[in-house]
Amino acid sequence: MATRSNSSRERILESAEAIILQKGFSATSIEEIVEKAAITKGGFFYHFEGKVGLAEALVERYLRQDSALFNELWQQAESLSEDPLHRFLIFLKLLADMMQRMETTHPGCLVAGFTYESVQFNDQVRQGMRAGLASWRDMILERLAEIDARYERRAEIESVTLANMFTGIIEGGILLARNFDDNSLLAEQILAYRGYVRMLYGAD
Question: What is the pTM of this model?
């Protein structure tokens, strides 16, 4: 059961993320955050020492949420097929469908935004972002290893490159979706990556 303290902390994080994704970290003030979160400035400093401490918590929360989302989709894919390639393709289709169904334009990626403003952060925040991106890469690498144990690739490409391509596709797709106010562009990029994987392994 969530305590009032935890509820206030989460409200601060939700409010801060929404504002930062719109304006950027450096342009967002603590005053704006506490106003949107309907909390006092003292309440803010009860949970965070300052903006850098807030940034650390935001990165941790954002990556934890992404990990939970990916795990949920993987579990769905695993329940639908025992074939590692088919599971991977199902995962990508589920992800694309989810992005397509979003009622509002994708708000953006906190890690991408923070990367552009990395000079604002300490090593802990920057290391957290790198660790998060590495976890997405490792997630894909694990699935590619399962596929490679059963299927032969039709072209030479390093597994790390193929895994990093997933992140590049997602981030680039978000950029397109936000600029053109159209989530279908993000979904299309994910499906294009899916199509490339199908061709790479000669899937039926």
Answer: 0.89
